[in-house]
Amino acid sequence: MYVELKSIYKYFGDFKASDDVSFSIEKGKLVGLLGPSGSGKTTILRMIAGLEAPDSGDIFVDGKRINGIPAAKRGIGFVFQNYALFRYMNVFDNIAFGLEIQKRDKKYIRSRVGEMISLIGLTGLEKRFPYQLSGGQKQRVAFARALAPNPQLLMLDEPFAAIDAKVRKELRSWLRETIAKVGITSIFVTHDQDEAIEVADEIIITNLGKVIQSGSPAEIYQNPRAPFVARFIGESAEIENYSVFKGFFPVDGFERAFIRPEFVGLFELGTAQYANSAEEGIVEDVFFRGGEMELRVNVKGIRVISRRSPAELEMQVGEKVSVIVYRLYLFNDSEVKLVENEGLIDREPVFI
Prior knowledge:
single chain; alpha+beta; Rossmann fold; CATH 2.40.50.100; 2 domains; 6-stranded mixed sheet; elongated
């Protein structure tokens, strides 16, 4: 593994920011540290970069233990969420800053900065100052400045937090494509699950200073191994009496459940398949989300969420509908279990 953290503990007074944190990252991967505010993700990033020191535990990069090595000598590039560009320097000089610190010759600096400006798509803007750039352009300059000295590892702390929504989405794709092109191992911090799922090769989920789960975006989303992950990833309705739904029965040790929108099917009343599993519900709210419609439906006093294409049959608030819950995540204090609606297993459809 290229990056390894082993049994890292970090305290700020009585607050435990990192609690036995251990994980590893393969070379060339783009990894997202994902978690709510205060979960410990930025502390992890800063310890790898050398901006904070762990109280115990070891950090390795490319097989070398880097504890105690000053940040400036770790060969790590860092991109801050507020860009941290030098206001009195133009684009060229901002990108060249790290190379000048390395005392590289002027010919190399010109060549390397030109390469970076081309990479970030800002050719012709070399003489502009930060105040003359958009938020997205500033972040690209910050990215180029971090890459220019050829770091062995790139750290990004909520790199899109200060950018408006439309530009942020564009930069996500740009960042993923650019890092893949450069091939540098990268770690970025975010609290935005959509961002992590879209950008990262792998996700490491943190909470209360601990690593809760790690894996590919698909694995994290489809197979949450802890209740926190099932609750944090996706949009889930949490219920206690899940056995009131047709096709689901009590499971020992699991008294609660999560229902995700994709687990819920809505049909015009009287047209649903699988009569043994269909419930009657009442539409309480309908929201237009651009590419989809979100419907909130009351079934036996429980509110569930479902999503449909705007091209499908429109449903109105107050309308009675047929509802099928296809599956649930059952959970207790430490485990998550995916269960399927037994009424849908190996059954022929029956129209009602």
